[in-house]
Amino acid sequence: MDLSPRPADPAPALGGGRPQSLWSDAWRRLRRNRAAAAAAMILITISLVSIAAPWLPRLADPTTQNLALGATPPTAAHWFGTDELGRDTLARVIHGGRISLLVGLIATIVSLIIGVSYGAISGYAGGKLDEFLMRVVDILYSLPYIFLVILLLVFFSRSLIMLFVALGLVQWLTMARIVRGQVLSIKHQNFVEAARALGAGDRAIIFRHIVPNTLGPVIVYTTLTVPAVILQEAFLSFLGLGVQPPNASWGTLVSDGARVLALFPWLVIFPGIALSLTLLCFNFLGDGLRDALDPQDRSDVA
Amino acid sequence: MDTVNFVTRRLLMMIPTLWVIATLTFFMMRLAPGGPFLAERDIPVAAKEQLMRKYGLDLPLGRQYLRFLGNTVRFDFGPSYKFPQRQVSEIIREAFPVSAELGAWALLLAILLGVPIGVIAALRQNTPVDYASMAAALIGVSVPNFVLGPVLVLGFSLTVFLFPPALWQGWQSRVLPVLTLSAAYIAYIARLTRAGMLEVLRQDFIRTAMAKGLPDRMVVFKHALKLGILPVVSFLGPAAARIVTGSIVIETIFAIPGLGRHLVNGAFNRDYTLVLGVVLFYAVFLMVLNLVVDVAYTRLDPRVELK
Amino acid sequence: MTRHLFRALLPLAFLAGACAPAPPGGARLAATSEQYFGDVTPPHDNTFTYNNGTEPETFDPGLAVGQPDGRVARTIFEGLTVPDPQTLEPRPGQAYRWEMSADGLSYVFHLRPGLVWSNGSPLSARDFQWSWLRVLRPATAARYASLLYAIENAEAYNKGTLADSNRVGVHAVDDSTLVVRLHAPTAYFLFLTQFYTYLPVPRWVVERYGDRWTRPEHIVSNGPFLLDFWRQQNRFEFVKNPRYWNAGAVRLDRIVAYSVEELNTSTNLYKAGVFDWNPSGYIPSQFIPYLRHYKDYRHGDYQGVYFYSINVTRKPFEDVWVRRALTYAVDREAIANDLLKGSREPWGNFTPTGYPGYDHPPGITYDPEKARECLRRAGYPDGSGFPRISILFNTSEDHRRIAEAIQAMWRDVLHIDVELSNQEWGSYLQATTALQYDVARRSWIGDYLDPNTFLGCLISGDGNNRTGWSNPRYDALLRQASVEVRPEKRMALLREAEALLLDESPIIPIYHYSTNELVKPYVRGLYRTALDTHPLTGVWIDRDWRRHEAPLAGTATERP
């Protein structure tokens, strides 16, 4: 994918055609990609439902237990059935979405903040500092990272904060590399030199020229990081290190449900569909964004 | 000569890396609450002191660290704390081939299935074949392997007794674990291949070759494929790393005596020596693998040179 | 594109249909026989395969602690006595005869003539003496050394206050006679002699190879089977020991014991016919209601109690009324019968059932009114002002579900705020040992058939106490009982101690363990026992089992 940057404020195209900035171009292409658009709609719906969960009328309390009832298959009273403690699975799945999306989002933001700053500094500074910082990244890249995450979670408490930080730490390396790569190629472009010649300071250069041009791949990668993080949290739940009760993420629900698959399949099917659907949508959206931001895609040229 | 220099430099770079990893892991393990000699059933204080002395755990942390470094350089990780009859190096020697075999089969299957799917999808871009295979691929990466595993077991092992539900004996027992582990990678590699192939197919020289009138197929296979699978090749390094961690789940569900389980249980049991040994071993393994992948990459893509 | 998305999702729907829930009874799972769970083809040779469970830390009998460790140890070593496969009574093992003195303080064991180790060297009483002293030696750091404390001076020697091992009450008078002196009459001493810690080990091998003496290439043993192969986290393989004194009675040629931890996997392997026996503790509790009607499912009492321990060194638990409130607010019946689907028995005592001659004091029952009253007495009417407390447990679905249930119960009955703390095993042990918790999930399994194996844990300062609770009267009662010769008086003292314990509530009993195991119909000689002990010496494969299809001993549930 060619992500050659464009100046933020280009001159009008020759020949009198309508000026097309990178962003409106991309937006147009994205809208035309029906899969990505559908994915975005689904994600928005899921997010809204999850956020609104505590206030949804007629939604059962996900923590109310009914031990005598136990696990029951889907019925009119419980659309998604109940789990072994008699809790309503529909409520658990919807509340689980809140947790999963929250974990995904915050961990991604953590990795974003660390990765972008690190990559930007490294790329912009160049020279010895850049080499050193990238060396560190190379070293960290070869670490069996998930092991350190496990050790981290074992060492520190199992709080939600710790989980965010630990998961974010696994993802920032690639982000840093991408950002650095972008920054490097932008740094020496003519328009940056021009801006500098006109007397713009470093900060202005970074914020007005460099950052907007790195946004493309960063956005794409962010969209693809969220599902990776959610899956990783599911993996940690499988080991018992993920979100702790009474909170339950989709990962918890799915890994618990998988254990009783033969007996109560609805306990894994419904959270599983929710999880997989969300991940699918993020991936579709990410793909769509990547295609939209790729100026070499010829399919829309008349 | 370039290659030799490159390889040597990378190998030398591994040493400080390993040192960092060892130190990090050492201190994290030590600082975690609990110790290797706690148990549900108590042992008398005198006995506990004996054990601590025996393993040098009564020494100040700094000295323990130095001792540890000294031993590591000699590849002596000592006995496992939890299983004192076994040396850590023994455990690794026994368990690693199992994990490696599992991972190798999974990767092989992923390449054998993923690459052709990706190529076909690229050749038939924007047709139903393309959409269907990419959708299937996406599903592959969206279903966690600890769901897929039990589903496969339920279907092919318990409902119809085709394959054993667990363990690692005989070729039949390898089928389900390998399938489960490779599912996500088949999907990923298919997507990568497709993306890579599309990229290549758009290139000028490919269009030139097609314009020259050589039969389509030849064009694809000779020029495009070599370049199109480049993303896959560079993915192999991180893929190996991820397969290593993914195998923990597979090893647990299918009761396979691999190294991943040892590591997780070791962390839970505060088995310091075992954890350190396994982490360092994996680090070396991954670094060597990345090195091999990088060299292979340059062989395939003449545009890239070894830095 | 959405069309294709839908098409791609179709397989999922198919899966959903294929996994449609069935009526209780599990009839949908294709079994080769409706009466038995899974494949019932016997092995074609005399090999018995089962799941030994978690990988043993060590199967050195002197150091073995857990059940998996002990099972391996007992397969390849044999002690003075062996348990009867059905009743667990001590039967002659390496000793064919013994006498006890009238005052109950000394025993004389006579070893069979001609006993040899597996390499041919003769086995003598000196081996027993050396092995027991080795366990007691502080340098060995044996966790179960306390089981030998019945012997005179054993405790002092083990704790390091006595240096001369000759003063410990075990002596080999000659090659085939072992004399043991106890510090007080111990009714269950003979039971102890078949426990792992009392098994003999070959001195010259241990001294030569140290920690590595148990490896298959070095090990020498005296039991019915020999260790042939061992792969960590995978399996053990045993072959018949031709030099075993009773080799004629051993009908198996080979035993393969796998080390599978996951309950689901283990049960699946049993169903697929790979395992002939799936021992207790390796069936997920949710499956049990669906297994009840199968003939190869066995169920009965097990000498274990699941309870919550309260850290009395922390506020507000130092107040007995708070503890009482907590314990009366737990609905044990709901947990055992509803949550655990009747696979366990609700239990309000600390000692389990099955102790001959022991009459339990009345147990704790669920009484929400009383619980609220106790909380009021403690100064937190209706939970107001009560601090937030946490329940600690180690990672396991069952523990978590029970904790979640109790969290809800305390919230609903007492209106107090409870959080859960799920730690993995290492941290959990640390927290409980160092008293860094509020309320923690615990279990205790009996080692021998006497209430003392439970009540002894809560003596002040005992390493297994882990609650910080200390009551001089309780200690005094137990001390008195340990020197009391008359059995009825002794049992009465223990009963009084337990009643005191239940009243003071440093522990909250929840359920009584039971054994839930699956045994293939062609396996004979394997019986359900209260201590979940299964000597494998007499097990054999009956290829003709269909003709002999009679109810196996121990298949009926043993509750009235």
Give a brief rundown of this model.
Chain A has 302 residues and is mainly alpha-helical. In chain A, 67% of the residues lie in helices and 0% in strands.
List the helices and strands and how they pair.
The complex is a heterotrimer of chains A (302), B (307) and C (560).
Chain A: H1 22-32, H2 34-52, H3 89-125, H4 127-141, H5 145-155, H6 160-187, H7 190-197, H8 202-238, H9 250-259, H10 266-292
Chain B: H1 2-31, H2 45-54, H3 61-73, H4 88-123, H5 128-142, H6 145-159, H7 172-201, H8 204-212, H9 216-228, H10 230-253, H11 259-269, H12 272-300
Helix pairs in contact in B: 1-12, 4-5, 4-7, 4-10, 4-12, 5-7, 6-7, 6-10, 7-9, 7-10, 10-11, 10-12, 11-12
Chain C: H1 2-18, E1 47-51, H2 67-76, E2 81-83, E3 90-92, E4 95-100, E5 106-111, H3 125-136, H4 154-159, E6 170-174, E7 177-181, H5 189-192, H6 203-209, E8 225-231, E9 235-240, E10 254-258, H7 263-271, E11 277-278, H8 288-291, E12 297-310, H9 320-328, H10 332-339, E13 345-346, H11 368-377, E14 389-394, H12 397-414, E15 418-423, H13 425-433, E16 439-445, H14 452-455, H15 472-483, H16 487-504, E17 507-519, E18 523-524, E19 540-541
Parallel strand pairs in C: 1-10, 14-15, 14-16
Antiparallel strand pairs in C: 2-3, 4-5, 5-7, 6-7, 8-9, 9-10, 11-17, 12-16, 12-17, 13-17, 18-19
Task: Give an overview of the whole structure.
The complex is a heterotrimer of chains A (302), B (307) and C (560). By secondary structure, chain A is mainly alpha-helical. Chain A has helices at 22-32, 34-52, 89-125, 127-141, 145-155, 160-187, 190-197, 202-238, 250-259, 266-292. Chain A has one domain: Orthogonal Bundle (MetI-like fold). In chain A, 67% of the residues lie in helices and 0% in strands. In chain A, helix 3 (89-125) packs parallel to helix 10 (266-292). Chain A is elongated and about 75 Å long. The model of chain A is unreliable at 1-18 and 296-302 (pLDDT under 50). Chain B has a domain at 95-258: Orthogonal Bundle (MetI-like fold). In chain B, 77% of the residues lie in helices and 0% in strands. Chain B contains twelve helices and no strands. In chain B, helix 6 packs across helix 10 (230-253). With 560 residues, chain C is α+β, with helices and mostly antiparallel strands. Helix content of chain C is 28%, strand content 19%. In chain C, strands 11, 12, 13, 14, 15, 16 and 17 form a seven-stranded mixed beta sheet that branches. In chain C, strands 1-10-9-8 form a four-stranded mixed beta sheet, with helices on one face. The chains are: A mainly alpha (302), B mainly alpha (307), C alpha+beta (560). At the B-C interface, helix 2, helix 4, helix 5, helix 6 and helix 11 of B face helix 1, helix 7 and helix 13 of C.
